[in-house]
Amino acid sequence: MLGKLLKYDWKYSWRLLGLLNGALLVFSLLGQLGSPVLWHGSRMLSGILTVLYAFIYVLLFSGSLIATQIILVVRYYRNFYTDEGYLLHTLPVTTSEKIWAKFINHLIWTFINILCLMFSVLCLLGPAQWENFFSLFSQFFSSISLGLNVPVPVVVLAALAAMLLSLAFMIYSLYFCVSIGSLFPSHRVLASIITYVLLYCVIQLGAFIYLIGTVTTIDRRMHGIQPASVAVTVGLVYTGAMLLLLAGNAAFYGFSYFIAHKKLNLD
Amino acid sequence: MNQLVTCKNLTKRYGSKLALDNVSLSLESGKIIGLLGPNGSGKTTLIKILNQLTSPTSGEVLVAGNPLCVQTKSLISYLPDRMYLGNWMQVSDAINFFSDFYTDFDRSRAQDMLAKLNIRLSDTIRAMSKGTKEKLQLILVMSRRAALYCLDEPIAGVDPAARDYILSTILNNYDPDASILISTHLISDVENILDEVIFIRNGSVVLQSAVDDLRIQKGKSVDHVFREVFKC
Questions:
Q1: Which of A125, A157, A174 is a domain's end point?
Q2: Is the domain of A103 the same as that of A154?
Q3: Which residues pair with B198 in a beta bridge?
Q4: Taking Cα atoms as reference points, which of B35, B38, B32 lies closest to residue B23?
Q5: How many domains does the structure of chain B reveal?
Q6: Which alpha helices (H) appear in chain A, and where do they start and end?
Q7: Nearest CA of chain B to the CA of A78: how many Å?
Q8: Shortest Cα–Cα distance, B48 to chain A (Å)
Q9: For chain A, which terminal residue's Cβ has fewer other Cβ atoms within 10 angstroms, N or C?
């Protein structure tokens, strides 16, 4: 049943997000193809077109980033806690399947969006800059690998795992806020937004305290200690952050599950 | 007759408000049952509990001998008192959706009924009138071969012609072994199709009886009995 739920979530998202991300890609390609006019045309025409292009590009770039998250979280809210919930919650599927379907679709579209944003930047940079762009990534991972004395593939895998857990954390925290909002008798969207703002502040404060703590620890360790010890410290800090993300994901998922399963509050 | 639904000491509270108060009742297979009561009497709450849209505060519900779970959802076909299909869907999407999730969904029956109403598969729900949306939803719900149909206020707020269409669709499309639970306060419109009635007031069942028995016993129509029982 998870696959079937996912199929309809994908079908819904595709119409809006496919169009939005597609528009960004096409516009970026147009920018690349039209670069002789945009960047090297007559001064007057080039200036006007460049400003116009940059304005629309920034709108599309930031719009696709924000709209992807808003569209998917609104889908979650509407499916779970508005009239559409009368259909979703009477389907012969489990609550966990419903949440997982939304989450997987959300995660896939977030990845697609990230890829489209990267591709659009590459398009604007032009093929000549691609090598520099990719060598930046390569240098980044190599320097970490060298500094910590661990193989590059391990660094890449660790970065991917951190990215996956962070995205899951972001998505589940949004679902958590919507679930909290659904407990209110009215103004549920407002309640969800306020919950999100408060949660964001708490998370930022927590991350800041954790960062200060880790930086102090690393700083203390680095004075006259072997690089291997630094690697151990960074490893511990990384593991700690990953465990915190895992715990946060489990808590947000668990709460969203509990509300949808036991405290469903449809009008 | 088999016991299809059994409710034992069912209570539901919304904060301090008591929506259902120690309700015990049973529904048998093969009957059309009217769940009758004024607005706010607890009809919708009872139907929501049967469809697992809300949890009872206390008490037990069994459907076909099983406690409420994912499997019991596949036995019940539910028509709420609102539109629950996504506006973005086309009629074909809605049919595919029901067909995917309900193994008892009869696609050809649904398509026949839609064709009679000139509703095309390519029509988008967003572009439909309220009445057409309601009919589409009714067609989808009645195209299932469910054990129990829960219809919450199916004829409220519709014109007499639409009311006739809705009632005939219900009568012509349900399996005789199945039961239909119709919640309404428009008694006179449904009286003739009911086998049994349950009167509910302030969250309590005040009467459950076969319609024929009630008529003979009281010498009046169900509508008249209802007016007496719920007199303000």
A1: A125
A2: no
A3: B35, B208
A4: B35
A5: 1
A6: 2-13, 19-33, 35-40, 43-81, 85-88, 95-125, 127-148, 152-182, 188-222, 227-262
A7: 9
A8: 9
A9: C
Tracing tokens 């049967």 back to the chain, one arrives at B50
Same domain, A58 and A174: no
Question: Where does residue B205 fall: left (phi above 0), alpha (psi -120 to 50 degrees), or beta otherwise?
Answer: beta
Interface predicted TM-score (ipTM) of this complex, two decimals: 0.88
- In this prediction the pTM is 0.86
Q: What is the tens place of the pLDDT at every residue in A54-113?
A: 888 888 898 899 999 999 999 999 999 999 999 999 999 999 999 999 999 999 999 999
- A-B C-beta contacts closer than 8 Å: 57
Q: Taking CB atoms and an 8 Å limit, are A4 and B93 in contact across chains?
A: no
**How far apart (Å, rounded) are the C-alpha atoms in residues B96 and B76?**
18
Instruction: Flag whether pLDDT at B231 surpasses 80.
Output: no
Question: Which is nearest to B183 in space by CA: B64, B29, B80, B63?
Answer: B80
Residue A137 placed within a domain: no
Sign, Cα dihedral of A164, A169, A170, A176: positive
Paired tokens of A177: 């806020």
Report the residue from A7, A94, A264 with minimal CB separation from B53.
A264
What count of Cα atoms within 13 Å lies in the side-chain half-sphere of residue B1? 12
Supply the CATH number for residue B203's domain.
3.40.50.300
Residues B84/B137, Cβ–Cβ less than 8 Å: yes
- Asked if B100's CB is within 8 angstroms of A4's CB, the reply is yes
DSSP letter, residue B68: S
Q: Which residues of B touch A262 (CB under 8 A)?
A: 55
Whether A64 is in a domain gets the answer yes
Distance from CA of A186 to the nearest CA of B (A): 15
Which amino acid appears at position A161 of this protein? Answer: A
Mark which of A93, A125, A157 sits at the end of a domain.
Answer: A125
User: Taking a C-beta distance cutoff of 8 angstroms, is the pair A92, B71 a contact?
Assistant: yes
User: Pairing relation of β-strands B58-63 and B32-36?
Assistant: unpaired
